[in-house]
Design a protein that fits this description.
Distance between the termini: 20 Å
CATH class of the largest domain: Alpha Beta
CATH topology of the largest domain: 2-enoyl-CoA Hydratase, Chain A, domain 1
Number of domains: 2
Shape: globular
Order of helices and strands: EEHEHEEHEEHHEHEHHHH
Largest sheet: 6 strands, mixed
Length: about 270
């Protein structure tokens, strides 16, 4: 595909199918600027239709993951109506949360502070790994704001209602190390090793059978199936799809030959 010209984003495409996306506005701790938001929209549109992509990793430039939305305009429009403000916020939320529409697994590498909407971006990814001293916080109410960008849905989905209540009502920040115990992140690593470790995880994910992986992500979307019966009905359709692929036979051959499979996504 033609490389996009993106502002405040860096994109590194690996031969393995990994796409490393770096929020690149370090002087503002990678705040979600208008140019960055538009770049994100264009990138997600491209990745959604790119069948060569097998895993997407998101991280931040410099010492922060993402300090959240650009708050410079908040309070600057005292005469704006609720409808006008809503019409501004919904497209912003939906643009950044469009990462959830990707069929491939997504991973947040939380290298530093992930605050407000920045924390929500990490929560919107399928997997999260953090530096031990990274800070995660959703201090909306401390600013006089109701939580936004689906924080009241994403936090309970990832870590449960009790954790969501505590973090949203107190606004306190947690370290990467504490976040593991709360279920907010999968694992932590020393900061200097984080990206290499996360890319290693992404390589493992990207090495799995692409069709089976995409269908598994769909099965687990939005908290998984509503019931056991729903799960069985889905799996009775999705598993036969993978039984009919070339990748299945390659996986079986690789197991017999005691080697790593080379999945082609067919």
């Amino acid at each position: 595909m033609t490389e996009l010209a993106l502002e405040h984003l860096r994109v590194d495409r690996r031969d393995s199918g990994i796409v490393l996306v770096t929020l690149d506005l370090p002087e503002r701790r990678n705040a979600m600027s208008a140019p960055m938001t538009e770049s994100w929209r264009r990138l997600m549109d491209e990745l959604r239709s790119d069948r060569s992509v097998r895993c997407v990793v998101v991280t931040g430039a410099g010492t922060a993951f993402c300090s959240g939305g650009d708050t410079g305009w908040i309070g600057s429009e005292p005469d704006a109506t609720v409808d006008q403000l809503r019409d501004r916020m919904l497209p912003f939320y939906r643009t950044w949360l469009s990462i959830r529409d990707l069929e491939v697994p997504t991973i947040a590498a939380i290298n530093g502070p992930a605050v407000g909407a920045g924390a929500c971006l990490a929560l919107a990814c399928d997997l999260r790994y953090a530096a031990e001293d990274a800070k995660i916080a959703v201090p909306f109410t401390a600013l006089g704001l109701h939580p936004g960008m689906a924080a009241t849905w994403l936090l309970p989905e990832v870590a449960g209602l009790a954790v969501a209540r505590e973090l949203l009502l107190t606004g306190r920040a947690v370290t990467g190390t504490e976040a593991v115990g709360l279920g907010l992140v999968n694992r932590v690593f020393p900061g200097e090793k984080l990206l290499d470790e996360v890319v290693g995880v992404a390589e493992r994910v990207a090495g799995m059978a692409p069709i089976a992986t995409r269908l598994t992500k769909v099965a687990l979307a939005n908290g998984g199936h509503a019931s056991l019966e729903d799960a069985l009905r889905w799996e009775a359709l999705a598993q036969p799809v993978t039984l009919a692929t070339e990748d299945l036979h390659e996986g079986l051959r690789a197991q017999r030959e005691k080697r790593r499979p080379r999945f082609a996504g067919r």
